[in-house]
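Let us work through a complete example step by step.
Step 1: write down the sequence.
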Amino acid sequence: MSARLDIFATPSASKLVKQFTAVGRLVVESPLPAATRELVSLRVSQINGCAVCVDMHTKEATAAGESAVRLHLVAAWREATVFTEAERAALELAEQGTRIADGAGGVPDDVWERAAKHYDEEGLMALVTLIAFMNTANRLNVILEQPAGDYQPGQFK
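Step 2: predict the structure and record it as tokens.
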């Protein structure tokens, strides 16, 4: 399988990717814990069916020391006991923010309030930005049929 478009070969697409990844770097530099970033990125990518992002974030999390048990349980986090309350709140917000069309009123207040118990305004803004960033990245990759499996940790740093 090959991608429909080489985003690094097209000048306008290359500019877009550089600007877009700059937003991702801002999230990495935020106070949001690295483990939370990877778990949220993985969950959003699972929901959206973005294989290249699932590949990337699973490998990045593993390289950062995340356990296989936690990575395998991200898809079923509600029933898993291996996540902190803060991680659970972040995963819940990520799901609600990703499945926005499924909830007629958007993200429910109780979901926001649970996240706000664990993250200050800087953390919440980073979390919301990450969720939006990952949803956009997923859609770009799915539309362009980016192949998965060859990602190496740190490849885009």
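Step 3: interpret the result. Residues 11-143 form a domain with the AhpD-like fold (CATH 1.20.1290.10).
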